Amino acid sequence: MAATLGPQQYVAQKRDILTRCLRLTEDIHNALGGDPDALEGLIDRRMGVISEFQALEGSVDDALRASCPKGELDSLDGMLRVILSFDEKTEATLRKMQIETLESMKSNTQKQRFTQYETVTRPMSGRLMDKKE
Predict the structure, then answer these.
(1) In a 3-state reduction of DSSP, which class is residue 77?
(2) Which residues are within 8 A (CB) of 44 and not within 5 positions of it... i.e. 6 or more apart?
(3) What is the pLDDT of residues 54-64, one digit of tens each?
(4) How many separate helices (H) and strands (E) can be counted in the chain?
(5) How far is Cα 93 from Cα 87, in angstroms, rounded to an integer?
(6) Distance between CA atoms of 133 and 77, rounded to whole angstroms?
(7) Residues 4, 65: contact at Cβ < 8 Å?
(8) Is the distance from CB of 25 to CB of 42 less than 8 angstroms?
(9) Could you tell me which of 18, 20, 25 has the C-alpha nearest to residue 86?
(10) Which pLDDT tens digit goes with each residue over 75-109?
(11) Are 63 and 6 in contact (CB under 8 A)?
(12) Cα–Cα distance between 67 and 64 in angstroms, integer?
């Protein structure tokens, strides 16, 4: 199928795939901290689009790439850079969320330890409450 592609069809398919990947990447970045199931679904869909991209790139030879208009290829490379930039931002946000979660867990653990060491002064029996005559 891809062997019969001309330069314009190749560029159009690549642009379509990168546009879908960019949209999904933005959705993933915006969904961080939300519903984990929705995030997992977005990631799965993005992985499918990446597989399509890899299949397209693997089926095209260097001669076809060389025959594509340079301006079009530069535009597609720009889209790829934007996607990679979003990936870096998403990774940084995930790391920040991970650190905050770990710090929260440490804080909760310390608070639990402190409450275990508190001394509770409760009478062992009713003798302190009994009135002696």
Answers:
(1) helix
(2) none
(3) 999 999 988 89
(4) 4, 0
(5) 10
(6) 95
(7) no
(8) no
(9) 25
(10) 999 999 999 999 999 999 989 989 998 998 888 88
(11) no
(12) 5
